[in-house]
Amino acid sequence: MGNCCSDVAGGRTAIGGTAGGLLNPGNTSNDAVDNFFKSRGYQGLFSQIELSFSASGLRDRDVLSKSDPIMVLYAKGKNGALEELGRTEVVLNSLSPTWITKQTLIYHFEVVQVLVFHVYDVDTQFHNADVKILKLEEQQFLGEATCALSEIITKRDRSLTLDLLRQDSTRSGNSQKCGKLKVYAEECVGSKTTVEMILRCTDLEYRDLFSKSDPFLLVSKVVENGDHIPICKTEAIKNDHNPTWKQVFLNVQQVGSKENPLLIECYNFNSNGKHDLLGKLQTSLVELEKLYSGGQGEHLFLSPAVGHDSQTKVLKSRLFVDKFSESIQYTFLDYLAGGFELNFMVAIDFTASNGNSRLPDSLHYIDPSGRPNSYQRAIIEVGEVLQFYDSDKRFPTWGFGARPIDGPVSHCFNLNGSNTYCEVEGIQGIMMAYTSALLNVSLAGPTLFGPVINNAAIIASQSVANGGRKYFVLLIITDGVVTDLQETKDALVKASDLPLSILIVGVGGADFKEMEVFNSTYLGCRQRR
């Protein structure tokens, strides 16, 4: 073994198969954080997606036969530029083609990924040409469609039918429908099964002169040519010849299958990176499960040195499996397919520290040119992502820290001005309610988060009580440090067992470091539950 890490603490850290980094990622200082999540079956809020395509009702552009359609997929950037992602094959003589060629791309939850689809009729003279080198400007354009990837994967059956549109040359600015395009999305996940194991060794050999060994396990999969590909390693345990390591999580997809051979090597940790091999075992997940069921240990062995004729040495040391359990780790898209929705909620800071909203230096200033202020940008950037996951797009929206006309300071008022309901229609509804509120309230203070968190928690708890399948995301936008620190902590603790996440976005130049305590409070409560 070569040098695993650049420092002793890093070298002793488990990589790729433990829950330690997952529960407290802030304390994990190696480069394998992503592998931590993957090895426990958590893929994050991104997935590899395979798109399939079919069309119907295409226009016939050929004289003696039907059109020969090809579909080209583009990603649309924020600046409107199109980047080609791929092309299907050409389907001959069809106005309702089902293309075989799939397109694979990475879905990111936090990004609005706009896709554009162009359909062309390929001229007969190019039928034998590779589609990759076709000059699209030489083909007849049949129509285009556009959507966000989120719109496809939020559908229950993960399919979306779009109108194909084509500019009508006879009517300036008008588009003409010229068929339909159906897009189907499928998540590319080989296996969602994760195996959790607790491994233990007994009677390990002495390798250190003045102390016991510092053992750790390295788990590798054995590939067809006999090479070993490391999957994970446990932490190194100091001075212990009968160690029990923390649980290891292996995704079956990583291993290949439960029958695939695995090599488990036990090393004595050395800070110089030259770790001593204490013994090894070739096995599989199937065999490890049998060890667990039978309560038996398997002897480790050492292979003879290269060039020596001596036999493999079976050691007194044994490996035991104290826990072996399988679980299915569902992905974010699985929950969406099961009918779960995200519900977006917004709370906006109207305290006086934002400055007079009529003056250009105010954080609440509405620029006549249409350029959004910091509050508007936060609403747009978060809201545009989350809106696709909410079917009715009705968003609870509040303000806090302001004095409504002829009233006392309110720390949670409905932004739409209603006394009975707090919802507005879509992101545009939030923007309109925000602009209107600036004209109808006086900025005041102090900055209190507790009341809006409690209101969001009430909505989330009512949804749970009614059997709703919703997960709520509360966005709090503020310009200053919170005043009711303890009350906010208490509200977070009470809300921690609800389907509710809270995003706090700071705007302006204030120091928001104190708010980091909310993260540890909220996450700490959730982990204990």
Task: Describe this entry's structure for a reader.
By secondary structure, this protein is of the alpha+beta class. It has three domains: 8-43 and 191-328, C2 domain (Immunoglobulin-like, Sandwich); 48-187, C2 domain (Immunoglobulin-like, Sandwich); 340-518, Rossmann fold (3-Layer(aba) Sandwich), CATH 3.40.50. Helix content is 21%, strand content 33%. It contains twelve helices and 24 strands. The chain has helices spanning 8-12, 20-23, 33-39, 149-153, 252-255, 285-294, 332-337, 374-386, 426-440, 450-465, 485-495, 516-528, and strands at 46-56, 69-76, 82-87, 103-108, 114-121, 140-148, 159-167, 175-187, 193-202, 215-222, 228-233, 248-251, 262-268, 276-283, 298-302, 313-328, 341-349, 394-400, 402-404, 413-414, 423-425, 441-443, 470-478, 500-506. Strands 17, 18, 20, 21, 23 and 24 form a six-stranded mixed sheet that branches. Strand 10 (215-222) and strand 11 (228-233) form a beta hairpin. Residues 1-7 and 18-41 have low confidence and may be disordered. Its main location: membrane. It holds the Pfam family Copine. Residues 28-162, 177-301 form the C2 domain. One of its GO terms (molecular function) is calcium-dependent phospholipid binding. It is found in: Cell membrane.
